[in-house]
Amino acid sequence: MGEFQIQQSFFDQYLGKLRHVAEIIDLAPEVVEILSKPKRTIIVSIPVRMDNGKTRVFTAYRVQFNDARGPMKGGFRYHPDVNLDEVKALAALMMLKTAVVNIPYGGSKGGVKCNPKEMSRRELEVLTREYAKALAPFIGPDIDIPAPDVNTDAQVMAWFLDEYNKVVGKVVPGVVTGKPLGIGGSRGRGEATGRGVFFIGLEAASKLNVSLKDARVSIQGFGNVAFNAAKFFYELGSKIVAVSDSKGGIYNPDGLNIYKVMEVKRKEGSVTKYSEAEIISREDPLTVDCDILIPAALEWQITEKNAGNVKAKMIIEGANGPTTPEADKILSEKGVFIVPDILANAGGVVVSYFEWVQNRMGYYWSEKEVDDKLKTIMVNAFNDVYEVSNKYNVDMRTGAYITSINRIVGAMKSLGWI
Ligand code: NAD
């Protein structure tokens, strides 16, 4: 290709992995074709009257990838970098994620290209309501069920639900998950992804004979997934040696008090304002000295440029797509045990599934019931993938893809699609 190298897109990475798995399990070409294309792609332009009186038009996406195993499920994010390729890739990952933990869903994802940090609460509410209105004909508890993701939270879900209810003229709590408790949310949903990451950590550590109590854990990010994961490891006694946010990172080899770090972040806007640590860059948590690394910010953080410097023996992917394929190769060669995103961060979608089940029953579980059920599903999924990886003599990512794709193919066969 000469000196010009075309960088693979996020969706290309998914396709590359799909083809790799197709060879291993001998998938028919038509199966690969179905799994290479979203079922439906929705792109809408949303005009919002901003606080300064001027109207801005935001581009919003929803990609509904596959519904062979059930209604489609996936969060939506607000971020300046949102684009169709990213949403498509994340929707495909959701299809795989729901299959790997064996909950009765397909996969989808959404996003609005915007910078929520520069928007007022009113502007975000208007944007969310307009997004809900635009998607209303294409979603529903039996069709496609959105949820929170980067920069979207329970409040955003509440606005979304309210607008959807107005459009359809009834109260449909199961159209969206990650809602506040008082309007049909589930106990345990807020911390579910972090808790799931922790359950996976426990299971992986027992397989590798690592003691989590003595482990040094480094985490990129300090949002929902990162903070909650940090909390459970910290409570067990692990040392959280580094965390970061979009403004930078902090490092203390003796361990950070993550509750104090959170207090500082809440008050002053960034973990970097925490005084009892050395300030590092937002990427440095990936390469500091530690036993377990949890990337829990955004995709494409561990690349061919920094993978060689990763010191962790185990990586638990809290974020979606944090490791590029080139980095994956380098880390594999170094013998790093990687629990892939579609397995490691599935706790959120599992408790979203519980929320949807509770909404349909109109009967709500205690936090303990939710946590126990989450643990069972995460532990079973980890062991399913571990077994498949051993059977095919492949890494955990490939094993997770094989596990999911076999389940999706089984459903497509039953439905007569193939
Ligand atoms: P969030 O918005 O709560 O947190 C994101 C965190 O990453 C923030 O602390 C932000 O400051 C930090 N960040 C952003 N850019 C950064 C950078 N360049 N370097 C370092 N830190 C940076 O989002 P979240 O819900 O915690 O999601 C994080 C990741 O986990 C995403 O990849 C998301 O898709 C994935 N995920 C989230 C859930 C969930 O339930 N929330 C479930 C599965 C996967």
Compact description:
With 418 residues, the chain is an alpha/beta fold. Helices cover 44% and strands 16% of the residues.
Largest sheet: 7 strands, mixed
Q: Mean pLDDT, as a whole number?
A: 96
User: How much of the residues is beta strand, in percent?
Assistant: 15-25%
H/E order of the elements? HHEEEEHEHEHHEHEEHEEEHEHHHH
Helix content: 40-55%
Structural class by secondary-structure content: alpha/beta
Shape label: globular
Radius of gyration: 21 Å
Please describe the topology of this protein.
Layout: H1 10-25, H2 29-34, E1 40-49, E2 55-66, E3 72-73, E4 76-79, H3 84-100, E5 107-113, H4 121-135, E6 144-145, H5 154-168, H6 192-208, E7 216-220, H7 224-236, E8 239-245, E9 248-251, H8 258-268, E10 278-280, E11 292-295, E12 314-316, H9 325-333, E13 337-339, H10 341-344, H11 347-361, H12 367-392, H13 396-415
Parallel strand pairs: 3-6, 4-5, 7-8, 7-11, 11-12, 12-13
Antiparallel strand pairs: 1-2, 2-5, 8-9, 9-10
Question: What report would you give on this structure?
Answer:
It is a single chain. This protein is an alpha/beta fold and about 425 residues long. The protein is about 45% helix and about 15% strand. The strands form three sheets. It has a seven-stranded mixed sheet with strand order 10-9-8-7-11-12-13. Helix 3 (about 85-100) links the parallel strand 4 (about 75-80) and strand 5. Helix 4 (about 120-135) crosses helix 5. The longest helix is centred in the last third of the chain and has 26 residues, at about 365-390. The radius of gyration is 21 Å and the shape is globular. Bound molecules: nicotinamide-adenine-dinucleotide. The site of nicotinamide-adenine-dinucleotide has 24 residues, from helix 7 and strand 8.
